[in-house]
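so im writing up the methods section and need the Type I restriction enzyme S subunit record in one place, dumping it here so i stop losing it
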Amino acid sequence: MNYLEKLLDGVEVQWKTLADYADYEQPTKYRVKSKLYSDEYKTPVLTAGKTFLLGYTNETNGIYKASENPVIIFDDFTTANKWVDFDFKVKSSAMKMITSKDESKALLKYLYYWLNTIPSGLVEGDHKRQWISNYANKEIPIPCPDKPKKSLEIQQKIVDILDTFTELTAELTAELTAELTARKQQFEYYREELLSFDKDKVQHLQMGDETLGEFIRGKRFVKTDIIEEGVPTIHYGEMYTHYGTWADQTKSFVSRELVDRKKLRLAEKGDVVIVAAGETIEDIGQGTAWLGNEGVVVHDACFYYKSSLNPKYVAYFTRTRQFHDQIKKHIRTGKISAINSKGLGTAIIPIPSPEEQERIVGILDKFDILTSSISEGLPKEIELRKQQYEFYRALLLDFAKKNIAI
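--- predicted struct ---
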């Protein structure tokens, strides 16, 4: 019998609602008055959502002293929640501050871990306050309710094990993230160096020079046009989330009937698809070399660039600082930033020999593969750790289903 089996062997539990064990407080008196945050200030301002830390305030009144009494902050509308054990203020009143009614019966950290095993079950458009209408009525198992000392001992051991997994996962994530950041910086350095040439030794031309190439805008289609099979298609939003320096397959498709009816435009093998609209200036101009044997439909928030240059060479160039520094003055800003073909065409690109282009692409491909493998490995590794954590959490907290004693 292993440690966990011994810990949970024969344990009886009692099911009661979270409201039986947990108190809540409205955060009104802890709300920040000014949103002028600064890293020079001392007190963190928190939200229960994904962002968590919004900034720091210099306000000294209405600080929640979680360093003395830890708390769970619970978003009333999304059910997101966080464990907090340091002093803070909050941005919004749309949350609850959850504490244990009696730590001699139910440890708050135990309640927190159990709370995170509950699926939210939220319905889209449901704007009810979730704690009172929903979560306070969720039932939680308390081990050995008739033996307070034994109960706390089991709760604490469960908390300790899950704390260890949480800490190990955080450490691993930090290490892998640091490795990825270092490799990306190295990749960016060599990309800039390899794509910089002396103008006296290598010809430089504007990308829009008629002797070199042309930019062709795609044609409009909408997301509802996208289907699971059909003509390969690149939507401009996918350029930020899915595509790298090159691609020979697409994530999305549209029907042949739509292509013919709307006379959609297709990039061919060797063209470079360049995104021309985004939420920020930094989003604009990234290129992906299309290397698929079949033509690919291009969205009207993108251009495809036809030239005699190595397509990967062009795609790598569009991701350099020197390219972006040239085009940013031609980007129109607003709710959506955008650039036209004339603006893209003003960028001057070095044109070494085809052999030199191929050599540069070969070097950068190796960096790209290394960086991508780490990028892909990072979420995979994190997901494995998450699955391992959830397995042990289920093992530790689902024991109640096997030995119910009310």
